[in-house]
Specification:
Blueprint: H1 2-14, H2 21-33, E1 37-40, H3 47-57, E2 62-66, H4 73-76, E3 78-80, H5 82-90, H6 99-102, E4 108-110, H7 112-118, E5 124-128, H8 135-140, H9 142-147, E6 149-152, E7 156-159, E8 165-170, H10 178-182, E9 185-188, H11 194-204, H12 210-225, H13 235-248, H14 255-261, H15 269-276, H16 279-285
Parallel strand pairs: 1-8, 1-9, 2-5, 5-8
Antiparallel strand pairs: 3-4, 6-7
Length: 286
């Protein structure tokens, strides 16, 4: 078992995703059991990257569905090619085209959910930010999550040709239903500790000096725990900050370079003002 986990971690590392033991174990078991995986955590901690890295590591196509308020079946599952249907009726030469003909395979347009279960080879299906979709859409997903099939009223039930590995992410902006949670394996991703964030920074930015990476990681950790910061910097923003320092040619993160680049980590002017006046922050980065 440990060998398999180490192999999975090594594959993810090759894709520049630094996974800890808990993440690797949950991902390994979910894939082995072909259980959908629900990943929760703050924005920017790397939830979406889990699906992307897993797809690359196992040579699978990534099919992504970005959720938003008002998302419905026509954008997520299927849509009928109405223009082609209308043309078929007009070309019927005076006889009405049969309804079964008009709602057949030739007129069906695949959207991400349908594409993922009709793929010849298994894919990774990413349902990103499911908490942004309406509760009705969440309920609509249950058939796919539990049966690996979908039902199209005019067409019938479509069973998966190959079983996709489904990853759902949530920033927890609204509670998800117990029905959805029961169908999924669960993983929570927190902000990384300083040591792991240094590994992430150096993996994503190979030219980054180790000492500078350590300063950025310590500074980011301080900003996340500071009560003076309302919008905590994500890992993605730590990467932006480190990249900005590299572009500036900074050899270290000091008071001057922090003042010049802090807008890459903090996206709120009040937060920036408070932190630049915070003596404890200055001591942290020096």
């Amino acid at each position: 078992m440990q060998e398999a986990l180490n192999a999975l971690k090594a594959k993810l590392n090759e894709e520049n995703y630094i996974a800890d033991d808990a993440l690797a174990a949950t991902l390994f078991i979910a894939m082995k059991l072909n259980r959908p995986l629900l990943i929760e955590g703050a924005a920017g901690v790397g939830k979406t990257e889990v699906a992307k890295a897993a797809a690359r590591a196992f040579g699978r196509e990534l099919v992504r569905l970005q959720c938003y308020e008002g998302l419905d079946e026509s954008k997520a599952l299927y849509e009928w090619n109405y223009q082609k249907q209308l043309l078929a009726i007009q070309m019927g030469q005076g006889r009405e085209a049969g309804m079964s003909d008009l709602f057949g395979e030739a007129y069906l347009l695949e959207r991400p959910l349908l594409k993922s279960i009709r793929a010849e080879k298994p894919v990774v299906l990413l349902v990103d930010e499911i908490d942004k979709a309406d509760a009705e859409f969440e309920a609509f997903l249950l058939e796919l999550l539990s049966e690996m099939q979908v039902t199209i009223p005019e067409y019938g039930t479509v069973k998966a040709r190959s079983l996709p590995f489904i990853v759902l992410t949530s920033n927890h902006t609204r509670p998800l239903s117990e029905a959805l949670r029961r169908r999924c394996a669960y993983l929570y991703i927190d902000y990384p500790d300083v040591r792991r964030e240094i590994e992430i920074l150096r993996a994503k930015l190979p030219g980054l000096d180790e000492a500078l990476a350590a300063q950025v990681a310590r500074a980011a950790a301080y900003l996340r725990q500071s009560e003076k910061v309302t919008k905590k910097p994500s890992v993605a923003e730590s990467l932006d900050w480190a990249e900005a320092l590299m572009a500036l040619g900074a050899q270290e993160l000091d008071e001057d370079s922090a003042a010049q680049t802090l807008g890459f980590a903090l996206k709120n002017n009040d937060d920036i003002r408070e932190i630049l006046a915070d003596d404890e922050f200055i001591r942290t980065i020096l």
